[in-house]
Every structure is written in C-alpha cells, then in structure tokens.
C-alpha cells in the first residue's frame, strides 16, 4: 500500500454532448487489420488526447513507475523497436514499467503501453517480453483500446455512483484506487476476437523484429502456472485473479497457436520468422530486481504486515492471509471475515475537529455507529466503534479503528465479519488491533524486499535444493518452477542459469 495513493478521486464527468461527439463514427480501413469498420471509434487525435490525459492516472493507480531507470530504458527500447515494425511507426509510443507486483500488461489509446514489474519477474527471455509488448501494440493499432474506451466512458458514470456508496460504507471496492476511468478501462477484458487479432498482429511485429513467436506460447504456459499459485494462495485453486493479465487478456493456448498459424498464412512477410529468444541478455537485466512488494509498498512476512516507510506494523490472526495492493492491505479468512488496512484521506482529517469526529462524521458517515470509545494503542491515540451494514452477501458486522500516527497520518483498520462469526473473532481482532505499533529503528533497517538473483545449477542440485534457495514464506517449489518454466518432468542440467528469490 502507498500512503498517498488512497486519495485518487478522479471523477470525470463527461457531458453527454461530448460523449456523442466521441462516438461519431469513422468509416475507414484500419491499416493493421485491413478491416472496414463502421464501429463508432474516436478520432486518432482524440485517442492521443485520451492517452495523454489518462497516462498519469494509470501510473498513480498502479503503484507508480518502477524506479529502475535501466530496466525502464531496456523495455522502452524493445517496445520502440517493435513499434517500428507496426502499421503506426510514426505514433509517439510510450512504454512504461509499473511498480506493481501483479502480472499484467495493458495499453491506452494513442500508443501508451504498460507492463508491470511482476510480469518482468515471470519472463525468462527478451522474446517473451517482446511477445507481450507486441500484443499490446496490436491492441492499439487495431484500435481495440479506442473502442473499449468509448464504451467504458458510457458505463463509468454508473460505476462512479456505486463506488461512492461502497467507500462511504467502508467497503473496499475490488479495484480499489483503480476507480479512475482509465484504470477501469484497462482492467476490462477484451473480446476473444480482439485477442486473436492482437496475437496475430503481435506475432507479425515480433517476428519482423527477429524474435521467435514460440515465446508467446511459452509465456502463456507460465501465466497459467502462475495462475495456479495465485489460486492456491487465495484458497481458490480455480479462481482467476481479477486484475491479472489472464482477465484483461482472456486467451487460451489453442487460440494463441491459431493466431501464430494465421499470422504466417495471412502475412507472407511475417514469415521472416525470427528465432531470437535473448535469454541471457534478459536474465542479466533482471538480476537483482525487486520481487514482490518493495519497501515503499510495505512487506508481508508471515502473519505480519510492515511498512518501513510509514514505520508501522501489525499482525493478523492465524488463518488469515494478507494481500497488499496500492489502495490498501486486505487480510481474509475464507469468506467469513476480512480486515482492511489503509490510511485516512488527509483532507477529511483536516476538516475533522477531532479523531472521534473524523470516525463518526467522515469515515462512518451515514452509518449508525455504536460503542464509540477512545482507546490507546501502544502509545497512539485511537477511536473505535461498531456498526452493522447490509451488503450483497448479507448483513455484516463492522468494527472501525482509526489510529493517530505521530506525524499526521491517521491509519484505519476495518474489521468485517458475518454476524455468526463476530463473537468468535472478537479476541483475535482485539489482538490485531493492539499489535499495531511503530517499528523499531532496527526493524526498519533490517526490512528488506525480496530480489530475483541468478543462480547457475551445480552438480547435485535437485528441484528440492533449488526450491530451498527461495527465501519466500511459502510455495517455494511452485515459484521455483513457474519462474523458470520447470515442470516435475523437466530435467535441469548443470550449468543452467535459473532465477531464485532471496532477501
Ligand atoms: Zn490482449
């Protein structure tokens, strides 16, 4: 979680007249797809404008730009090369690596392409990254991004209203800070036909640039393996991660194979068929790169969440699993209980006359709050209260705890339970509340993110010994396999360069 990112409230009001102008149809042949399209698209000028306007919001909503300039330049260079092989070489393309642990990639109209740091850690060679970037370039050149944007604008007014109710009731929205219009648009999935088209275009661009199209398939296999880990962590083996590339780009292995075949059939010049993977170059680029959350996002270690920049930490009860996002930190136990941690909006804090006034008049505005009391949590002033609300999944008990930090921020813990488990969780939740404390100077100094390191496989190494090198809390073997495309059937010869995760 980032301290400032809680406060993105980009409510964009698009007057209906402007909306009508946006959807004025343009009936011309698309240079990438060759299709005569009668769909209502925005003009290329408007596309660039939308991209320019939304670009900073996307960066904010997805955790900021990854601050490794070398990797940023490396990715921009690959993207720049690929875009020169597209039908829009003259567009000013912008490639951005987001400091986000989710595995995702998306594009805005006007040539803005994003990939996450999480996605970089999963890839094993440059060709896999080229495959992802050229697929995104394909969405732009085929104008899928523009199309999606028009329809999102039309529905977003309704979503904004829903979002406002959700946050007033203290219910975290799925997308969290991604409530900005652009973020909503980029998290929406494309259609299967659009995916096929982008894969075909992607194969065209990457092969023209000399990369092997096989990387598109190999990376997809990795994504599926990664999805299984995510599912295990979420306790739902088959659940697709909502804000993941599998949701934003719904594809299947078969469809990708089909796209590769079609790309070669349709476009004889694509049959340049590159065969470069550039694995060594790629691995040396990401050697030492942060894996998982960084210090500015806060670290999850076992049942503890610590934020060395904010200098605070707390523990959640056994059986709860912590999930960190730019908007908040959520801990869940099955579907029966949820703990949400975030920081209060400083504007509201400034308006409030006291911490108690903030809780009753701002945070719990519109709710009837009972048992409001002032408490002291490890030397910090706090105010707590309880209420009951109605949600889609039935009624829920909530407990709010607002804690006054030393230098201004007010931290918030929200406990949400189904009424039949509220009593049982009373003491564990109390323990969580009173575990909230300032980190010591030594703890702050010793808090380190995980990093990707390269390791050359030695004689005598086994899958188990390689997994043992992973410093992460759990699923070491699964991560070792997915990061290195190793399956139980694969042999890993001595001398192979693999990725491991250390502190
Ligand atoms: Zn796609």
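^ structure tokens above, recovered residues below v
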């Amino acid at each position: 979680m980032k301290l400032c990112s809680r406060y993105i409230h980009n409510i964009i009001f698009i007057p209906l007249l402007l909306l009508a102008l946006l959807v004025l149809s343009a009936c011309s042949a698309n240079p990438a797809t060759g299709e005569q399209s009668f769909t209502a698209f925005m003009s290329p000028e408007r596309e660039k404008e939308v991209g320019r306007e939304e670009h900073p919001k996307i960066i904010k909503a997805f955790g900021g730009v990854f601050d490794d300039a070398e990797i940023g330049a490396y990715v921009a260079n690959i993207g720049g090369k690929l875009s020169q092989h597209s039908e829009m070489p003259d567009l000013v393309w912008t490639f951005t690596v987001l400091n986000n642990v989710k595995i995702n990639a998306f594009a805005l109209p006007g040539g803005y392409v994003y990939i996450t740091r999480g996605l970089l850690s999963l890839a094993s060679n440059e060709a896999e990254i080229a495959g992802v970037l050229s697929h995104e370039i394909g969405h732009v050149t085929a104008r899928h991004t523009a199309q999606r944007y028009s329809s999102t604008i039309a529905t977003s007014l309704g979503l904004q209203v829903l979002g406002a109710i959700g946050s007033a009731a203290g219910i975290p929205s799925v997308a969290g800070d991604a409530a900005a219009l652009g973020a909503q648009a980029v998290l929406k999935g494309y259609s299967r036909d659009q995916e096929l088209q982008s894969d075909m275009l992607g194969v065209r661009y990457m092969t023209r640039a000399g990369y092997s199209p096989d990387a598109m398939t190999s990376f997809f296999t990795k994504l599926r393996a990664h999805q299984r880990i995510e599912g295990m962590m979420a306790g739902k083996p088959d659940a697709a991660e909502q804000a993941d590339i599998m949701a934003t780009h719904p594809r299947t292995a078969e469809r990708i194979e089909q796209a590769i075949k079609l790309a070669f059939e349709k476009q004889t010049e694509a049959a340049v068929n590159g065969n470069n993977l550039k694995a060594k170059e790629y691995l040396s680029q990401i050697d030492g790169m942060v894996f998982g959350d960084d210090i500015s996002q806060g670290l999850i270690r076992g049942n503890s969440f610590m934020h060395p920049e904010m200098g605070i930490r707390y523990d959640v009860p056994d059986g709860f699993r912590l999930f960190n996002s730019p908007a908040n930190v959520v801990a869940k136990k099955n579907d029966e209980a949820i703990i949400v941690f975030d920081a209060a909006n400083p504007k509201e804090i400034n308006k409030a006359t006291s911490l108690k006034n903030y809780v009753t008049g701002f945070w719990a505005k519109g709710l009837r709050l009972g048992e409001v009391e002032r408490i002291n949590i490890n030397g910090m002033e706090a105010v707590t209260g309880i209420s009951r609300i109605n949600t889609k999944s039935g009624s829920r008990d909530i407990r709010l705890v607002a804690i006054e930090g030393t230098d201004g921020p007010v931290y918030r813990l929200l406990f949400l339970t189904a009424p039949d488990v509220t009593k049982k969780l009373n003491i564990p939740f109390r323990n969580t509340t009173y575990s909230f404390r300032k980190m010591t100077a030594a703890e702050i100094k010793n808090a380190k993110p995980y990093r990707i390191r390269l390791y050359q496989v030695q004689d005598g190494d086994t899958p188990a010994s390689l997994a043992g090198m992973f410093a992460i809390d759990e699923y070491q073997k699964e991560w070792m396999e997915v990061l290195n495309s190793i399956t139980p059937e694969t042999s890993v010869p001595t001398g192979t360069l693999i990725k491991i995760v250390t502190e």
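Residues 144-168 form the longest helix (25 residues).
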